[in-house]
Each structure stands twice: as structure tokens, then as C-alpha cells.
Write a structure and sequence with these properties.
Number of strands: 14
Shape: globular
Oligomer: single chain
Bound molecules: pyridoxal-5'-phosphate
Family: Belongs to the trans-sulfuration enzymes family.
CATH architecture of the largest domain: 3-Layer(aba) Sandwich
Cofactor: pyridoxal 5'-phosphate
Catalytic activity: L-methionine + H2O = methanethiol + 2-oxobutanoate + NH4(+); L-homocysteine + H2O = 2-oxobutanoate + hydrogen sulfide + NH4(+) + H(+)
Number of domains: 2
GO molecular function: cystathionine gamma-lyase activity; homocysteine desulfhydrase activity; methionine gamma-lyase activity; pyridoxal phosphate binding
InterPro entries: Cys/Met-Metab_PyrdxlP-dep_enz (IPR000277), PyrdxlP-dep_Trfase (IPR015424), PyrdxlP-dep_Trfase_major (IPR015421), PyrdxlP-dep_Trfase_small (IPR015422)
């Protein structure tokens, strides 16, 4: 035995050089949380192979990678092997990395109006400073999308279900416009989830989620994810390594656990949203309800073709926007009169939430130019019993001055 092996190491060395952990057999059924932020290699050859040409991003945390792979398999159900995923610390980290990967100085993006306020602000306040130009158009009129396309257009950006008017994106037509333009079709599908719609199956190149909302689903973690063809995701991963925004393993664990109940939650929320929207639309204090499940909504027919259905009918998402008579004040009064429903600007989660769009400002509920009604109140439907939600909102509507109109 050589001298180095015989020598007894000091207590500090022994306390940080504890016996290595090996993978247990039988293997765990639940996802282990690998909290390690550093990875050791057998030697420089293995390290060089793992890192390739890029830096630290080359080593993926297995818990984080497991979450991204799970979303990729849900979004790419028709061809799981052709879909890869990359996880991020938030929805906006996912959105910004996609845009920074495929846009650059002198390029152009076409985006919808209304658009999630954070994405709108990113494009107009940040990317504009780096030479990216944009047009925001009403996607209900596809001619306007076509007209907005320029030779420099690299991305056509869409939201499967927009917020708060719940416009349904015509993903198949947008795909044709994007292909003809040589641009990528990027779809933020946060409000749909793969339980309602899988945009990759309709021609989208990349799908983005603010996992904070429905995928995690319990209001206790934050994250984002992008899925699409492995070649595109590999390019994104390189930029992600440069700009940061990595998801934490603890949040990855919660997000992946949320996926196990995603279909149960979302199916039930969509069914409740349908009943809720139909009941609220009949109230005399209500001027309008935006919910694509209602036959009068502009996205109703499109949704029937794009969205999944089950015994409960087509799933039209779980957000319902209610516009009471009486303008801004009526929206405020409606929210303040709710007793069961929580006042919160985020969507998803098990508890129903309401938010008055005009009070929360443009960030949560679309850009100011999109004509969001001053009275609009968005309900993100949760898992409570439909009758209790309807009773709460009916009582709140009854208290409005316009309730006996
Ligand atoms: C449609 C949409 N995209 C992106 C985001 C941004 O997600 P995050 O808040 O996790 O950054 C949100 C947040 O609610 C959203 O609703």
C-alpha cells in the first residue's frame, strides 16, 4: 500500500469528502431532487466530451432535465422522440431566451394584440434596443398577419389562448404564413396546456409555457419551459447557457409532480369554466363574457378543431373574462364583492382567482393598445365546486348597481 493511501485524512477533508452516493436499487418511483449545482468527471476526457464547445450549461441537472423531458413528451404526444425540451426559472426566462435565440439586430417579429404584457414589454422596451423590430396585429384577421410579414421576419409569435379576451390562435393558418415567410412559429401555450391543445401537432416550431401557472398548478413554484424539434432546442440551450435563467431543482421537482395531475385538474377546470361562463353570461349585470366555449365567441369553431375533447365536451381552457355593465368601477366592485374567489393576478392553481384587468395594469393582462375593456374581470377557474363559484359571483354581481338592468 502506498503512503498516500495509508495516511489518515484530517477531519475537514473527511467531512467534505464523504462516501459517494450510488444510485439505489430498487430504483425510486418518485423523482429524486438532485440539488447539486456542480458535477465531477472521471477525468478531463469525460469533461471535454460533456462540455463540447460550450460552457457550464452543458451539464444538465437531472431533476430539471426530467421536468423538461416530461413536458416535451406531453406536448409531442404524436411523435415523442422528435421533441426535446429546455426548462427555465420562469415563463419570461423561457420567452426571452426563445426571442434572443432566433432574433437579432435587423430582424423582425410579428406578434398578436393583445399579447401577454411581459412579452409585449420585452419586445418593445428591451429587444427594440438591440435592433429588433415588431408589428402587433389582431390575429383574428389573418390578412393583417400576412401583411405584417417582411423579408426580415424571423418569428411569428402567437398565444394559443390570449388573455384576457381568450382569442383562439389559428395555429394551422399561422403555420402556413410562417412557412411561406421562412419564419419560425413560436406559440405560448400557457393558457391551453397540452391537455387542451398541442400546437406542435398543428405546425408550431416551438411551444413555450409559463409553468408557474397550470403545469405546476398549486401556486407554490415558478418555472418556464420550451419544447420543439431537438435541433431548435439545442440552439436555445446554447443561448440559455450564456444568458442564465436556469430552473432550480426544487422547483423542477414541484413542476414535474404537478404534471402527474395536470389532465385531472385541467379537464375539471375546463368543465367548471364552461358551466361558470354560461351561468354568468345570463346575469343582468353582465354585458359580455369572453370564453371560447360559448357559441357566440369568435374562437368557438376554431377551438372545436384545435382543442382536445373528452366525455365532458371540448376543452376550451379555464379562464373566463366577465365584463359587467358600468365600466371601470363595476369591475372593481365585482372583484371586491367576491367572498370565496381570491383576488390574484396569476392564472392556474387549484383556487379560483379573479383580477380586474385595468387595476393590475398592462403587465399581467395584455398591452394597453389592445383595447382591453375597463370593466373586464378575469376569472382563473380552480378546483372548487362549480355551484359554489357561481353562487359567489352571482352574489357579487347582484350587489352591482346594474344588476337589475
Ligand atoms: C401567457 C403567459 N406567458 C408568459 C408568462 C410569464 O410567466 P412568469 O410569470 O413565470 O415569468 C405568463 C405569466 O403569467 C403568462 O400568463
Amino acid at each position: 500500500m502506498n503512503r498516500r493511501a495509508r495516511r489518515r485524512q484530517g477531519e475537514n477533508t473527511r467531512s467534505v469528502r464523504l462516501p459517494p452516493v450510488t444510485a439505489p436499487r430498487p430504483g425510486p418511483l418518485g423523482l429524486p431532487v438532485w440539488r447539486s449545482s456542480a458535477w465531477s468527471f472521471a477525468g478531463t476526457a469525460e469533461q471535454a466530451e460533456a462540455f463540447g464547445e460550450k460552457g457550464p450549461g452543458a451539464v444538465e441537472n437531472p431533476t430539471v432535465a426530467a421536468f423538461a423531458a416530461a413536458v416535451a413528451s406531453l406536448e409531442g404526444a404524436a411523435a415523442p422522440e422528435d421533441v426535446a425540451g429546455q426548462a427555465f426559472a420562469s415563463g419570461m426566462a423561457a420567452v426571452s431566451t426563445v426571442l434572443m435565440t432566433f432574433l437579432g439586430a435587423g430582424t423582425h417579429v410579428v406578434a398578436p394584440a393583445p399579447l401577454y404584457g411581459g412579452t409585449y414589454s420585452l419586445i418593445t422596451n428591451v429587444l427594440s434596443r438591440f435592433g429588433v423590430s415588431a408589428d402587433f396585429v389582431d390575429y383574428a384577421d389573418l390578412h393583417r398577419v400576412q401583411e405584417a410579414v417582411r423579408p426580415s421576419t424571423k418569428i411569428i409569435y402567437a398565444e394559443t389562448l390570449s388573455n384576457p379576451t381568450m382569442v383562439v390562435a389559428d395555429i394551422r393558418s399561422l403555420y402556413r404564413i410562417a412557412r411561406a415567410a421562412g419564419a419560425l412559429l413560436v406559440v405560448d401555450s400557457t393558457f391551453a396546456t397540452p391537455v387542451v391543445c398541442r400546437p406542435l401537432e398543428h405546425g408550431a416550431d416551438l411551444v413555450v409555457h409559463a409553468a408557474t401557472t397550470y403545469l405546476g398548478g398549486h401556486d407554490d413554484c415558478a418555472g418556464g419551459v420550451v419544447v420543439g424539434r431537438p435541433g431548435l432546442v439545442a440552439r436555445l440551450r446554447e443561448v440559455a447557457a450564456d444568458v442564465g435563467g436556469e430552473l432550480s431543482p426544487d422547483d423542477a421537482f414541484l413542476l414535474r409532480r404537478g404534471l402527474e395531475t395536470l389532465p385531472l385538474r385541467v379537464r375539471r377546470m375546463c368543465a367548471t369554466a364552461m358551466v361558470f361562463a354560461a351561468a354568468v353570461a345570463k346575469h343582468p349585470a353582465v354585458r359580455r363574457v369572453h370564453y371560447p366555449g360559448l357559441p357566440g365567441h369568435s374562437g368557438h369553431e376554431l377551438g372545436r378543431h384545435l382543442f382536445d375533447s373528452g366525455p365532458e365536451g371540448t376543452r376550451y381552457g379555464a379562464c373566463v373574462t366577465v365584463i359587467p355593465h358600468g365600466g371601470y368601477d363595476a369591475g372593481v366592485r365585482l372583484v371586491d364583492a367576491l367572498r370565496l374567489v381570491s383576488v390574484a393576478a396569476t392564472a392556474g392553481g387549484t383556487r379560483t382567482k379573479a383580477t380586474h384587468a385595468a387595476s393590475t395594469g398592462p403587465r399581467q393582462l395584455g398591452d394597453g393598445s389592445s383595447g382591453v375593456d375597463a370593466a373586464a374581470v378575469r376569472f382563473s377557474i380552480g378546483l372548487e365546486d362549480a355551484e359554489d363559484l357561481i353562487a359567489d359571483v352571482t352574489a357579487a354581481l347582484d350587489s352591482l348597481p346594474g344588476s337589475r338592468v
